[in-house]
Amino acid sequence: MSGWTDAHCHVQEAFVREEGGAPEDLLVRAREAGVDRVVVVGTDARTSRQALDLAAGSHAVDVYAVAGLHPHDATQDAQPVRELLAARPPRLVGVGETGLDYYYEHAPRAAQRRAFALQVGWAHEFGLALVIHAREAVDDVVDVLASEGVPPRTVIHCFTGGPDDAARYLDAGCDISVAGIVTFKNAESLRDAVRLVPLDRLHVETDSPFLAPVPLRGRANEPANVAAIGAFVAQLRGEDVAKLQAATAANTERLFAFGT
């Protein structure tokens, strides 16, 4: 089945592992697996630039780019990322990934909140989608969004919470994107949440090269696997795979305003 969109992946040179080959190899395999479009997401100035460079090229699938500063890197100088956004290069569709990560806390929470709030402002300023990384931080994520204003096109990427967390994000105006974690044995609460997300607010992603779905755990993930993740989500929700594929592709096109 063709027509899948990987709503969030990292196939830049900085992320490609030796066993995954070159970025173009991953994109060719994605096309062979039925993927039409991928959204390549930056985590700092270097990987954001690499995402934009990929989006500017011609590939086996359509490539779009998101530029931002990950919460792990919240203490870095944000100005180079802002300059990338301000240039408005072709196929730049979002700000991120930004947000809050209180699980690892590689950066102080106060610094994460400042960087997150700053990038929420950039999404408003440049009229771009906002891509949020959120781990064990639902209260503060919702609080920052309330104080800064939720951009009209906002997604919680690689959602890992339960039904209550999903409801809070949805009520705040965010979409929900689901990655391979939904296939993991210990992810029953996440599966309960995914069953409840309205179909018109749902996206599927790989977050590659991380979080390969069952039965591929332990290997480098890649965009080709979004088809398997989507099929799993469809079965979980009791929906036709083709219906879920078409809906999630349309949702991601709306979220990132492809082609506008």
Q: Helices and strands in order, then pairings?
A:
Blueprint: E1 4-9, H1 23-32, E2 35-41, H2 45-55, E3 62-67, H3 79-86, E4 92-101, H4 109-126, E5 129-135, H5 138-148, E6 154-156, H6 163-172, E7 175-178, H7 188-196, E8 202-204, H8 226-237, H9 241-256
Helix pairs in contact: 4-5, 5-6, 6-7, 8-9
Structure description:
With 260 residues, the protein is an alpha/beta fold. The chain has a single domain (11-256), classed as TIM Barrel (Alpha-Beta Barrel). It has helices at residues 23-32, 45-55, 79-86, 109-126, 138-148, 163-172, 188-196, 226-237, 241-256; strands at residues 4-9, 35-41, 62-67, 92-101, 129-135, 154-156, 175-178, 202-204. It has an 8-stranded parallel β-sheet. Helix 6 runs parallel beside helix 7 (188-196). The protein starts with a strand and ends with a helix. The mean pLDDT is 96.
